[in-house]
Amino acid sequence: MIFTYDKEVDPLAAFTAPPPNETPEERQIRERKEQEAIQRSRNIEAELKAAKISMKRWKDAVKVLVLGQSMSGKSTTIKNFQITYAQKAWAEERQSWKAVILFNLVHTVNLIVDVVQDAVDRSGRTSEHTSVDVAGRPTQHHHKVLLRLAPLRRIEDDLKTHLGAGTSEVEILSKNLESNGPSHEVELNRAIVQEFTVRSSSGWKSILAQVRKSQSGRESQIHQALSDVVVSCKDDIRWLWNDSVTQLILQSRSLKLDDAPGFFLNDIDRITMHDYEPTDSDIVRARLRTTGVQEYHFTLDRANGTNLDWIMYDVAGIRTSRAAWIPYFREITALIFMAPLSSFNERLAEDNRVNRLEDTFVLWKTICSSELLSHVQIILFMNKVDLLRKKLDQGIQVKKYIPEYDKGNDFATVSTWFRRVFKRIFVDHRKPGSPFISHFTSVVDTQATGQTLQAVQATILRNDIANAGLM
Ligand SMILES: Nc1nc2c(ncn2[C@@H]2O[C@H](COP(=O)(O)OP(=O)(O)OP(=O)(O)O)[C@@H](O)[C@H]2O)c(=O)[nH]1
Ligand SMILES: [Mg+2]
Questions:
Q1: pTM more than 0.90
Q2: Pocket around ligand 1: residues whose beta carbon is below 6 Å from it?
Q3: Residue ranges of the domains in the chain?
């Protein structure tokens, strides 16, 4: 067929012309679709424009990477940064943390239920006694309470879904409970208690945004319903937690839940109140694991009335995710390295043959000797000193876990020795003359951490200005 082109007819107009014999209803539908398409295209244009402006603006921002093994306190440090420097965003997110805190709470309860149920199963039967058993065995009352708490399993699952993620390590716990193994399993159990988590590919900011969105409308009713179930179980939860048999069972498995991340059982009355609003302390204690690399933007108000853009990168600390850190090494101004000192008697959840503090020392050496980081300022946070102090007060001996340690077991001696080891590695592997900057921290203490972060911010800026040749 020969295609003839008639100059009088605009081919595009012919192409976009309404179909012949269009009914008024069809026309209405067509026009609505056209409008929607125009709006979509405008939105895309606006987003691209905003992204371009933002890229230009954030190109010169101070960039700080926070590194360390999983559970070292990286995300918690960034939360503190937000408390100190981005109050508005912090306040907006406050309510959304409720879902995470509720999840943490329910997870702990389910863990206790599993452990007590396991003790019941192992002993073959519950004691004949109805509520108190002199031999410390679970009683029929325990059995009833466990049954009444069964709906919390579903609530935990729903909250995980609600928080937009799959779960990890939890199944391993039940496997461990099946075996009757000795001490190494107890250690592993402890690691798992610490490792409960919601995996997220998008970081807590976007999870919270999602939670916020769902706090209106039907989703909000679902969330309220979940919360109502927990409220209805409150008395049984409190009873189970305060019960001496439960405490004995937990002790026999070396499960120290009070110090585990995301522990909220002692706050149950407050948390389940209708008008509960998470406090700063609740939020920094809430546990949500990071996967991938997350970027957090802050604009700091400075005393001279100017603003300063600041980007913090939060990364996943587990071993398998560490390769993802490397691309960030080139573009950062500073690196905060988190070393959780209290982990001296723990093992890695991802490889339970490895002592967590030894893993931190190895990681620290790798960071200090990295060529890619030779231009970067490194700041060490020796974190979780509150937990270190507690463990030493309980008489846990450092030398039992760190063979080279041959000094006293008091906090001052132990912490000074740890600092010396970090410093020695730093001096041996960094450029001569590089300043060793370190802080003892407990980043769940928001007031003290606020002060540390002010000092850190000043140090980073001073170094940045010096590097730019302005000082
Ligand atoms: N007691 C105490 N708890 C802390 C401290 N720092 C962090 N935590 C808690 O430890 C848990 C883990 O902290 P996160 O900040 O989530 O750890 P992370 O390094 O981001 O871990 P990943 O995201 O898995 O890499 C949280 O429940 C925190 O509240 C501390 O100094 N003292
Ligand atoms: Mg994290």
A1: no
A2: 68, 70-76, 261-262, 284-285, 287, 289-290, 316-317, 383-384, 386-387, 442-444
A3: 61-85+293-468, 88-125+134-285
